[in-house]
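Tutorial, part two.
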Amino acid sequence: RRVHGGLWNKLESMFFVVELEKNIALEPKYFGQHMSETLVATLSKEVEGTCSESHGYVICAYEAKQLDKGRIIPGSGNCIFRMAYKAVVFKPLRSEVLDAQVKSVSENGLVAVAGPTTIFVHHAFLPRDMKFEEMGLRPSFVAEDQCKIQADTLVRLRIENVSFQNGKISCTGTMRDHYLGVLL
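Running the prediction step on this input gives:
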């Protein structure tokens, strides 16, 4: 099964804008004229690239604003500021379709990545006519029409299950449906 085209418009539904809050601690050496810029930079550094089940993967933080004047932490001189911000997050949802790049192939199935997400597709959820072949260093699944899935192949798949563990997004997927398969 070959599918023409790039990303589906439906991919956009996995991206959300969320409004969040976070406490940011600053050392006294950062107090002064450029403290607001330092707070925003520290916030971005602390939240971008993080992942949680409630929000998904934080791509970027923007429109950050300080909510209070800060509280001094006794004994350290550091100050904690409450910050509000908007974040663009990536959170794949069950039944959504996305494009991914195959990273590895084994007789059990394949592992693909789409951004920060790792997707496993069991061989039972690949197109029915695909058979595993181990040709030297490049194992692959090959269809009757000689269409191949191997490392670095671009595929379109549907998410079946999503899990968040240790700050990472893992999914299982399927390619056994209309318009899913190898992208040209």
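Residues 35-47 form the longest helix (13 residues). In part three we will examine how such features are distributed along the chain.
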